[in-house]
Design brief:
The protein is of the alpha+beta class and about 100 residues long. Helices cover about 30% and strands about 30% of the residues. The protein is built from three helices and seven strands. A three-stranded antiparallel β-sheet has the order 1-4-5. Helix 1 packs across helix 3 and helix 2 crosses helix 3.
């Protein structure tokens, strides 16, 4: 897998974050990477904060499929705590309903 380039544009239309599955809203800065793997090519779009969470976990030794960055949508409670320890504000942004192990219901 090869990343041909990553940019941080401002969304002009609504996109889907491939990291968490949520919406990237118009006016929001996001990560856009052009990826090739063998004969396949695609564009990866992610919230900047989801990308940051994936990078924190990856740098802590946790990877996703085939050694790639782990996806926010696949992070379990233990992974979330690693993110929270590294950057509590980031964790609150991604998982606002969970603080100190208790859901805000």
């Amino acid at each position: 897998m090869l990343n041909l380039g990553t940019i941080k544009p401002v969304a002009k239309v609504v996109h889907r974050c491939e990291n968490c599955g949520g919406r990237i809203e118009v006016g929001q800065v996001y990560i856009r990477a052009r990826i090739v793997d063998g004969g396949d090519a695609w564009v990866w779009k992610s919230h900047a904060y989801c990308q940051r969470a994936s990078e924190i976990l990856f740098n802590a030794g946790v990877d996703g499929d085939d050694g790639t960055l782990p996806l926010v949508m696949d992070m379990d409670r233990e992974d979330q705590e690693v993110i929270r320890e590294a950057d509590a504000e980031l964790a609150d942004r991604i998982w606002p309903e969970v603080r100190d192990g208790v859901r805000d219901d």
